[in-house]
Amino acid sequence: MNLDIFKITDDQIKSWNTYGYVYSPNHLKKYISQYIISVEKIESLNKKNRESLFYYEKIKGVPRLCRIEKFLEDNKFLKKQILGENILGYINKLNSKHFYLYKEKINIKFSGGSGYSAHQDATAYHKLKGHITCLIALTEMNEKNGCLYISKLKNNNKLLSYDKNGCIKQSLDKKLLWQPIIMSKGDCFFFNSYLPHKSESNRSKGERRAIYLTFNLSSEGNLRNEYYKNREKSLNLNKNRISTIGHFKGKNII
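Below the sequence we write its predicted structure tokens.
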């Protein structure tokens, strides 16, 4: 088996098997300019000409875009990349199993943009037996502009105590050891259902953008359309949220 094609090293396999994550620097460096241009094109689409779902938060009283969901059909380049060798192919090889795209989103933090409380993704997608998420850095991601923080737990395959919003209980959050994942444009970070993670607000003067792609085992079926139907129902019942769990710290605009 030639793993070099997918840029998977022995250390990355060990990290995946032990902690449930893989950091792959420069994974998409060759294509990152096209990624950025493609996201800009999606952001410029008006409501009548897009399938994407846009969400906004108030920053200093001004509406600012904070998330885009369900953008796959709005950009041919991104669709080809996501379902191609560099992302889905890599995930299949890393796990020695086949996966389907479950959902896709773009998280945007303008200066002053809000962060996300500590959580495990398994609470948001509890019907899945297991899944993997790929984070793609479209800008630099650091402690000042609200990068991802993770807590490394060996052989993490269970849920931690969580509250009514689906977030890790604050008393436990304070006890976990958190480390920032500093990323450059084009880096990728792959993680499983149980890796605890969170992020803080953007305290820089610039913008921070990242794509998050979640994949489910193909043995569970192609569930993307079903997910977005159920997601719509969930948000209609929880109009103050931008996700199926209440981890967003900002004040979203309904």
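The domain at 3-253 is CATH 2.60.120.620 (Jelly Rolls).
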